[in-house]
Amino acid sequence: MDGQARDDRGRLYHVVNTIEETVIAVILGLMTLITFVNVVLRYGEGGAFLTGIETLFGIDLPGSLLWGLEVVLVLFAWLVLFGISYAFKVRAHLGVDAVLNLVGGGTRRVLVLLSAVACIAYGGLVLKGAWDYWAPFAGLDRTTGRAIPTGFDDTTRDQAFYITEQIPVPFGNAWLSETFNSYMDGDERVVDTYDKLPRFIPYAILPFGIALMLFRIVQATVGVVRGREDSLIVSHEAEEAVAEVADLNRDR
Fold first, then answer.
1. Contact status, residue 68 vs residue 31, Cβ threshold 8 Å
2. 73-117, pLDDT tens digit by residue?
3. pTM of this prediction?
4. What is d(CA 104, CA 131) in angstroms, rounded to the nearest whole number?
5. Model pLDDT for residues 201-229, shown as the tens digit of each residue
6. How far apart are CA 97 and CA 239, in angstroms?
7. Residue 122: what are its φ and ψ, rounded to 5°?
């Protein structure tokens, strides 16, 4: 029965892990590829290599990717927000455990659970703020209430027309424009076509990344409650100090 419960938990854990780690790997790969291509185009312009490619394929390569830097900045922001939740998963966040190491097992567990509750409360506040910031860019409503959502504010100013500076729309421009950037003028629906990628797409990582972080905190808290984990953090400094002392003792 216990093995079956662990298997059930493991399936959800595996699915989320696979998605998270795949996205992080893709983001890192895209950042590297775009930066590499941009450097080659910028410093190889007029050279034999790029001239040969232009001749072979009958194309005219640009001197650089105008949107490359902005895309890399967006991907870096995505990587940071995904990394926050990933660090909770692998317990890579640093913390001060001096007090925890002074108390016994029962008290230590209570203190860890109190810190977990504080993290969940903090994550909920950040999630509300992330939604309230992102929602207007997607033509959605902010939440009401200062700390706890009490509903939705239907007077939120629509900001779906905001676009990025250089990033083009790779596909689905007609659908995006009709869905998010249209309005009624009398009985006629007017559609403003995006000429650049709308901001709500890169900004969507804010609520999604924070929600994933909150999921990881809750997951870690459940692990503490069930006795699978004894802390939400790991202190690398302490581990390194212990390793150094162990090395010194072996040398003696």
1. no
2. 999 999 999 888 888 887 777 677 666 667 777 787 888 888 889
3. 0.78
4. 40
5. 999 999 999 998 898 888 888 888 887 77
6. 12
7. -65, -45
Which two three-digit tokens encode residue 120? 């969940």
How far from chain centre, in Å, is Cα 167?
19
Quote the pLDDT of residue 127: 95
User: What does the alpha-carbon distance between residue 11 and residue 210 come to, in Å, rounded to a whole number?
Assistant: 22
Residue whose pair of structure tokens reads 């209570």 in the numeric block: 110
Q: Which of 63, 56, 25, 22 is nearest to 41 (CA)?
A: 63
Kindly provide the residue ranges of all beta strands, DSSP E only, lying in 20-154, ordered along the sequence. 143-144, 151-152
- 223: which 2 tokens? 């692990």
> Distance between CA 115 and CA 43 in Å, rounded?
51
Distance separating alpha carbons of residues 245 and 248, to the nearest angstrom: 5
Amino acid letter, 38: N
